[in-house]
Amino acid sequence: MSGVYARRIRRAAVLVATSALAGTGMLVTAPTAQAAPPTPVSAATARTYLSQLTVRTEGSSTGYSRDLFPHWITQSGACNTREVVLKRDGTSVVQDSACAAVSGRWYSEYDGATWTAASDVDIDHVVALSEAWRSGASSWTTAKRQQFANDLTRPQLIAVTDNVNQSKGDLDPAEWMPPRSAYHCTYARMWVHVKYYWGMSIDSAEKSKLQSVLNAC
Asked: What is the pLDDT of residues 122-175, one digit of tens each?
């Protein structure tokens, strides 16, 4: 059964069994207008950026640790980066005095699911921290790695379904793309935008996949 057809079946079920789904935290309904990550560069600009990125064999993971990329730092008041993105990417998000999201709706662009529990949502680093390490960040200062890991200005952070984010892990576009194909062009633009801004390298398979996606945008 295709993902689209399966979602249609679940949407129909919502109409007759809303109360049964209320406790699950998931609503399989069409997305509503909402905030989103910063808009990435256009496909044309992304193609130009891609041509300018250094192509080299991916570096080693030796020495890598997430602790070398201090993330979810305080942004303002009691709110850290994760909570800022949850508020930004969701609709009707209510936060408590500690800035934790206690209600709201989050549409995951990666797979087309809508969630009503913040615990079902991860904040994805579009370019994963370990991917960044192997692409040049191993030589950065800790301060620069912190800026990268909490970058709210570029399209580097996005709220998505937690298990989809976990299935991505630290894979690059040659190894993983969002299950929802309609988002591939945007994802490729985001990826190139981030790598270009932060001066990271790409490997040949990664570049080939990105070229293919961007040429079809």
From this structure: 999 999 999 999 999 999 999 999 999 999 999 999 999 999 999 999 999 999
Residues in Cβ contact with 147 at an 8 Å cutoff, skipping those fewer than 6 apart: none
DSSP code for 202: B
C-alpha of 52 from chain center: 23
| CA–CA gap between residue 106 and residue 76 (Å, rounded) | 22
One-letter amino acid of 59: G
CA distance 47 to 51: 6
> Of 47, 75, 66, 59, nearest to 188 (Cα)?
47
Contact 103, 116 (CB under 8 A): yes
Query: Which residue, among 98, 113, 109, has the nearest Cα to 35 in the 3D structure?
Result: 109
Angle 204-215/43-52 helices, nearest 10 degrees?
160
φ, ψ for residue 38, nearest 5 deg: -50, 140
CA distance 84 to 88: 6
* DSSP bridge partners of 164: none
Instruction: Tell me which residue of 4, 2, 1 sits closest to 112, measured CA to CA.
Output: 4
**What pTM was computed for the model?**
0.84
In sequence order, the 6+-apart residues with CB closer than 8 A to the CB of 11 are 28, 29, 30
